[in-house]
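pinging the channel bc i need a second pair of eyes. not urgent but kinda urgent?? the chain im working w is below, pasted from the shared doc
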Amino acid sequence: MSQHPAHEELARIRGLMDRSTRFLSLSGLSGVIAGAVALGGAGLAQYHMNASPGPASDVLTYGTGQGYTTADELLLTLIADAVVVLFAALLGAFWFTWRRSRRTEQRLWDASAQRLMVNMLVPLSVGGIFCLALFYYGLPGLVAPATLVFYGLALFNASKYTLDEIRWLGLSELVLGLVALFWLEAGLLFWALGFGVLHIFYGSLMYLRHERGTRSSEA
């Protein structure tokens, strides 16, 4: 009987240490929403690619730099689609994570959240500049694999400051991105799998492991 209070005290101390070093308020629902939005964006992008004539069949350049006006219009449409998907995913991530941080009584922008963001932003910033260079040199077909690779690196780099599932999500994104580099004609499919299906899978796993039990105990 006397051991139980000691175990509870150790668990409490361990929880306090985790909360001080890792951002644990990241909501799995934000991943689910981001994945659903990404799948919708991928479907819309595929629709525009199917509606575009010849140049879109060039999976590396999409006909850019060859005098195809339709190719340039297609690229602008795909970029606009990606921006909308990114904005909607970030908005959903902020909302659900903010809501969970209130429930767990952890500040949304504490030291652990700042370390998480810094470790994510460095690979993401480099990846964003790299993708802009790909567009600049007329190689948009490499953008989908590149985004998966750099996003995976960012998640893996930041995973030590948040939930363990983020590490496996990052590794999964890296594997998909590397495979997609050698299968350019399926680039959009791999992008949908990485940003859509994997987000939904790992987001659901995070929710079931870290949030559903907490909600039921509070009820």
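so The two ends are 28 Å apart (CA to CA). and The chain has a mean pLDDT of 81. — does that match what u expected or am i reading it wrong
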